[in-house]
Write a structure and sequence with these properties.
Blueprint: E1 2-4, E2 21-28, H1 30-34, H2 38-47, E3 51-58, H3 62-68, H4 78-85, E4 90-98, H5 100-108, H6 121-125, E5 138-140, H7 144-154
Antiparallel strand pairs: 1-3, 2-4, 2-5, 3-4
Length: 161
């Protein structure tokens, strides 16, 4: 199921008029979905003033994950990452706004939920489950270039050529 919101951006006030609108890919990972945190995570993004261009609840496939995490496929942790990301549905979201990449990463918090500051998604909702695996609720693109690459993988119809 895909919910595309791009035509409605005008109702988000200044987002639709910004000259420097940036996009980022946000994933609510299987642990966030399983724990019922989708709404709370989306609220954090909306409260920051960002708009959603697209939002989809879906199962991550091996092909999509191999493309998304291409730089990690040969690393020893990759099989565990794939197992985690395919353990349940994810919510894939294209978020738009000024400095969307860096701003969402600030809202998300440090990768390790134990080290994430209070007030961030990972700091407020994440924890160490004691099994040696990092389950950190969300993914956010790390650069505008990677955001566009990742958006093209998860939402091919929104790829910028």
């Amino acid at each position: 199921m895909t919910l595309s919101l791009a035509p409605g951006l005008r109702r988000y006030g200044t987002v639709g008029r910004m000259a420097n609108v940036e996009r980022t890919l946000v994933l609510v990972k299987p642990d966030g979905v399983e724990r019922g945190l989708i709404g709370r995570i989306l609220t954090r993004i909306e409260e920051r003033g960002f708009a959603f261009q697209a939002l989809e609840l879906r199962e991550a496939t091996r092909d999509v994950l191999d493309a998304h995490y291409a730089e990690h496929t040969a690393k020893p942790f990759y099989p565990g990452l794939v197992e985690y990301m395919t353990s349940g549905p994810v919510v894939a979201i294209v978020v738009m706004g000024a400095q969307a990449v860096s701003s969402f990463r600030s809202v998300a918090g440090a990768t390790d939920p134990v080290k994430a500051a209070p007030g961030t998604i990972r700091g407020d909702f994440g924890r160490d489950w004691g099994d040696g695996e990092i389950r950190n609720l969300v993914h956010g693109s790390d650069s505008p270039e990677n955001a566009e690459r990742e958006i093209a993988i998860w939402f091919p119809g929104l790829a910028r050529h």
